[in-house]
Amino acid sequence: MPGITTKDEFNKHIKKVLIDEKAVQEAIARAGAEISREYEGKPLLLVSILKGSFVFLADLCRAITLPCEMDFMIAKSYYNSTESSGDVKILMDLEHDISEYHVIIVEDIVDTGQTLSKLIPMLKERNPLSVKVVTLLDKPSRRTAAFDPDMSLFTIPDLFVIGYGLDCGEYYRNLPYIAEYNTEEGVCSDV
Ligand code: IMP
Ligand code: MG
Q1: FRET partner for 177 with CA separation of 20 to 30 A, picked from 25, 56, 60, 147?
Q2: Candidate from 47, 109, 187, 190 with most ligand 1 atoms within 8 A of CB, to mutate
Q3: From the candidate CATH numbers 3.60.15.10, 3.40.50.300, 3.40.50.2020, 3.40.50.720, the one assigned to the domain spanning 21-158
Q4: Is the peptide bond before 51 cis (omega within 30 degrees of 0)?
Q5: What is the pLDDT of residue 178?
Q6: Mean pLDDT by 10 residues, the chain (191 residues)
């Protein structure tokens, strides 16, 4: 059911811009160049963890100058915030048999690390040639699982952020920048 219908309501939750569009695009150009150097001559599969990473994937894949394939998966972690362990379920699986590919997992943000710390071992059981994780944002201060991405474009403090694929109650994914969410104006169902 739609929640936000007016521009005023939409805008009042955008507290401030944390990472502007230019900085995001420059970091993606650098990451794409690095990946293009590292994976030359290797069969490459970019795996986007939906939904948050679809915007990042769209720009990152265009900054990569190598042939590569794309696949998508939906994973949800179910855990109690007071516990450090949780369960991850694959709600939509990949189409590819990843055993013939070097896989790069493309994520929007690594927060507690619960999702990827469970998902990566599940993917490794399928014997990919290699698996690495590139994330747009990293919030290391929130970590409850031992997991670190191989490449992170920006490290941010413990703030709830929106934009560039990241949502609050499904809104704000279409902002071209990363912003801090204004919790004084109400909390989204995701927080
Ligand atoms: P975690 O690392 O398992 O805690 O899960 C990360 C997921 O939680 C991300 O893929 C996002 O969907 C969501 N998430 C974590 N922090 C934020 C945030 O600040 N804004 C929006 N979504 C977030
Ligand atoms: Mg979300």
Answers
A1: 147
A2: 109
A3: 3.40.50.2020
A4: yes
A5: 98
A6: 89 96 98 98 98 98 98 86 70 98 98 95 98 98 95 97 96 98 75 43
* Domain ranges (residues) in the chain: 21-158
Q: Atom 8, ligand 1: which residue's CA is nearest?
A: 111
- What's the confidence (pLDDT) of residue 171? 96
The rounded Å distance from CA 186 to ligand 1 centre is: 18
Residues with CB under 5 A from ligand 2 (ion): 167
Atom of ligand 1 nearest to the CA of 107: 10
| pLDDT of amino acid 76 | 87
